[in-house]
Amino acid sequence: MTIAPQRVVTLHYVLSDRDGSVLDDSHARRQPLEYLHGHGNIMAGLERALAGQEAGARLSVTLMPAEAYGLRDEALVREVGRHAFPMKEIAPGMRFQTPGDDGPEIVTVLEVRDDAVVIDTNHPLAGQVLRYRLEVLAVRDATRAELAKGHPLPPGTDPGEVEDKKLP
User: Fold this and answer.
1) Burial class of residue 114, CB neighbours in 10 A (0-12, 13-18, 19+)
2) DSSP letters along the chain, please?
3) CA-to-CA distance for 21 and 130, rounded, in angstroms?
4) How many angstroms from the chain centroid is the CA of residue 126?
5) What is the overall mean pLDDT for the chain?
6) Which of 57, 59, 125, 140 could form an SS bridge with 69, CB 3.0 to 4.6 Å?
7) How far is CA 20 from its chain centroid?
8) Which residues have a Cβ under 8 Å from the Cβ of 94 and sit 6 or more positions away?
9) 56, 46, 48: which is closest to 132 by C-alpha?
10) Distances in Å between the alpha carbon of 60 and those of 13, 63, 69, 106, 132?
11) 121 vs 108: CA distance, rounded Å
């Protein structure tokens, strides 16, 4: 079975930066990625590269910043009041997830001052060339419940518990 829209794909991947430093490895975590193809669950560039592949396929994909997490935008580096952080201890490099206009966003602390904190709301991988080594483990048709939710469901999920909003 080939990878196509409305199919659930299970794969292992190793994500590296331009220099080959490993940023994430599903093998090392012993947790393959499962996604619903054609539903925006993964980056569009990866979906395009995987389309038409079958279980057992191994491929390498390089994504330029615009195809991955976007270009860095220095306008997203800004100063906020120290009161925006309820915890006492804050240090450069700390990351927080906060609600954003388009859903959750990651905030990285760059500098801590007495009354202000300099933050960066660019994605931590923005501006980077990303290299993926992919191994397709399995491809199957999605269930109606998965199509309704727009992503794979854990094994054993009772379809009657899934609200069917996406299908007519």
Assistant:
1) exposed
2) -B--TTEEEEEEEEEEETT--EEEEHHHHT--EEEETTTTSS-HHHHHHHTT-BTT-EEEEEE-GGGTT----GGGEEEEEGGG--SS---TT-EEEEEETTEEEEEEEEEE-SSEEEEE-S-TTTT--EEEEEEEEEEEEPPHHHHHHTS---TT--GGGS---S--
3) 10
4) 12
5) 91
6) 125
7) 19
8) 108, 109
9) 46
10) 9, 10, 18, 27, 6
11) 6
pLDDT in tens, 96-126: 888 878 788 889 999 999 899 999 999 999 9
Structure tokens at 35: 């996604």
* Cα–Cα distance for residue pair 164/143, rounded to 1 Å: 12
